[in-house]
Amino acid sequence: MSDAKDPREIAARINTSVPHPARIYDYLLGGKDNFGADREAAEQLVKLSPGTREGVRAHRAFLRRAVHHLAAEADVTQFLDIGTGIPTQGNTHEVAQQVNPEARVAYVDNDPIVLVHGRALLTGGPGTTSVIEADLRRPDDILSHPEVLNVIDFDRPVALILVGVMHFITEQEDPYGLVERYKAAVPSGSHLLLSHITLDFAPQVSSEEFTKPYDKSTAPMVPRTHAEVEKFFEGWDMVEPGVVEVVRWRPDERGAEHIPGGGHAWAYGGIAVKP
């Protein structure tokens, strides 16, 4: 974790030779904040699985619908978005603050490039948004970080957002224990919004093939089954329709369950509330 404020110092720590999940995702979304190693890994994914780009966009659309639900229907006013990725259209704070201008959002990611672009992007009022460089594998660092505490009051309900990030945590790193640590830090009425890559919809693809583009990245990918994704929500009450393919989670009037170009999301998503 780094608290450095100087963008030049932060940029100097960006390793452009090693693919990073946030930058691979940025490339697949059509962004420009990526490097040759990221693009190479992304193109390997596309070659293995044509339609990946459309699926990534569908995954992003799920985040927007889910955050809108939390802000508009669940009256959530605080969001802790961990593994946020490089800022793009329809970020958590944009969606939430469109519903409620007083919504407060703290972003966390372990890629320095996210810190550079995130701080340039955040235009909300003082104390309403923040972005820090930290790793979700170190929950105590995040939960006690001054910039997080400046935005999030952990005595009031919080939406924990872990979208598209837990599949980069290996079994050896105790993914369920990490999520439980975050769940324990928030009070009753808090929500967990989580999505996760799966191969349940692609029995023809081996896990070894699918994850190979990430083998040389800063984090390997670990697809999980429906039952394994549901386990992250244990002890909390699921919000309808439960853990489903992200394109089928409350699709909007544009028919989000149909991905243009025959793409696929290959990801589960859901929301649960703490009793």
UniProtKB/TrEMBL annotation:
Pfam families: Methyltransf_19. InterPro entries: SAM-dependent_MTases_sf, SAM_dep_MeTrfase_SAV2177_type. Keywords: Methyltransferase, Transferase. It comes from the Bacteria. One of its GO terms (biological process) is methylation. GO terms for molecular function: methyltransferase activity. Transmembrane segments: none annotated. SUPFAM superfamilies: S-adenosyl-L-methionine-dependent methyltransferases. This is SAM-dependent methyltransferase. It comes from Microbispora oryzae. The lineage of its organism: Bacteria, Bacillati, Actinomycetota, Actinomycetes, Streptosporangiales.
